[in-house]
């Protein structure tokens, strides 16, 4: 699962999409495209942004819900937790422990 998350996060447009969903969750494809164009200067087609959203969904970073004919996209940070656990929290635990010296 980490590989899919890292692959999804490797793309700058996908990171910008997540930034926008963090700022305003529950956006339609049209809203995401408009925000990417105005705030990030990304003039990608709706089809291209839709493909990026599909990759983010496949990685578990975005959930979509339908209300009538509209599809809303929501960020899901749960797939990031194992990454945080793997490096950040474990690293902080080691910082809290006194350094062991081997006597050199």
UniProtKB/TrEMBL annotation:
Q: Which InterPro entries match?
A: ArsR-like_HTH, HTH_ArsR_DNA-bd_dom, HTH_MetalResp_TranReg, WH-like_DNA-bd_sf, WH_DNA-bd_sf
Coiled-coil boundaries:
none
Q: Could you tell me which species this protein originates from?
A: Saccharopolyspora terrae
* Classification via CDD domains: HTH_ARSR (cd00090)
Recite the UniProt keywords alphabetically. Answer: DNA-binding, Transcription, Transcription regulation
* Keyword DNA-binding appears in the UniProt entry: yes
Stretches assigned to the HTH arsR-type domain:
1-95
The protein's name in its UniProt record: ArsR family transcriptional regulator
Transcription in keyword set: yes
Q: What is the lineage of its organism?
A: Bacteria, Bacillati, Actinomycetota, Actinomycetes, Pseudonocardiales
Q: Which GO terms describe its molecular function?
A: DNA binding; DNA-binding transcription factor activity
Supply the SUPFAM superfamilies for this chain. Answer: Winged helix' DNA-binding domain (SSF46785)
